[in-house]
Amino acid sequence: MKVKEVADLVGISVRTLHHYDEIGLLKPEQTSEAGYRLYSDHNLEMLQQILFFKELGFPLKKIKEIINRPCFDREEALKFQRKTLVEKRAHIDKMISTIDKTIEHMKGSIEMTNKEKFEGFDFSHNPYEQEARERWGDEAVDKSNAKLASMTKEEQKVMQEEMNALYRSLAALRHTSPESDEAQAAIKKWYTVLNSNFGIHYSLEAFKGLGQMYVDDERFTKSIDQFGVGLAKFMRDAMAYYADNNK
Q1: Which is deepest, 45, 60, 171, 234, by most CB within 10 Å?
Q2: Residues 137-143: contacts with CB within 8 Å, 24+ apart?
Q3: What is the pTM of this model?
């Protein structure tokens, strides 16, 4: 199949396929005398793998590394992807249920406790671990995982509740100035929590960079803004101000 045919079949752009070829992620089986990229059934199978990993949030660099390993097993990868997508679906279903209940609560049809309003939010795992490894290296992530693994379930629950409480308190301040004393006191607590619970130390500059990522990476933005629209930007500005004024 020619590149345009593959693009139309899959629903992605020709430019995306060209990019995959350029970075060595998916090279076409052959190129015709006229210079057309020609894709085989095997290429399509690998493209399916790439798109499944991409749907799960894996960066292209990591996908390339995985599928080019000599021990790569396509069936094993599919089983992993299915398991992960089922877990993702269950998480999304729970979030949708919380939204439906919240709408009914707003109409006065039902009553919701504060705890029920946040059912479905789960910060006990890190969905961005692969990207974290790419950005900061294995050592930092392994230290963080080791720290979490050493905690009991009760300790992890307490930590999660502490972080959720901080998100909520910051969300309540998001329409005020991020430079205010109240906002800075809350963001100082956030800095302390990050450095106390994950086995690594964020320098002030790294803390500022993390805040910028809350806005640059839409996955972080969506996750944080579930506590209040605009919270990610507010935290970024508050974290930057805190870092610049505490050097």
Answers
A1: 234
A2: 140/200, 143/198, 143/199, 143/200
A3: 0.47
What distance lies between CA 14 and its chain's CA centroid? 26
Pairwise CA distance, residues 81 & 87, whole Å: 10
In what helix (H) or strand (E) does residue 153 lie, and over which residues does it extend? helix 153-173
Q: What's the residue count for the chain?
A: 247
Are the C-beta atoms of residues 234 and 178 closer than 8 Å to each other? yes
Amino acid letter at 161? E
Q: How far apart are the first and last CA of the chain?
A: 58
Which residues lie below 8 Å from residue 141, measured CB to CB, with a gap of 6+? Answer: 129, 132, 133
> What pLDDT, on a 0 to 100 scale, did the predictor assign at position 18?
94
One-letter-per-residue 3-state SS of 22-75? HCCCCCCCEECCCCCEECCHHHHHHHHHHHHHHHCCCCHHHHHHHHCCCCCCHH
Percent of the chain whose predicted confidence (pLDDT) is above 70: 86
pLDDT of residue 59: 86
Give the contacts of 7 (CB within 8 A, at least 6 positions apart): 13, 14, 16, 17
Residue pLDDT, tens place only, 183-197: 999 999 999 988 887
For 21-44, the pLDDT digits (tens) are: 999 999 999 998 888 999 999 999
β-bridge partners, 38: 2, 30
Contacts within 8 Å (CB) and 24+ apart, 27-31: 28/3
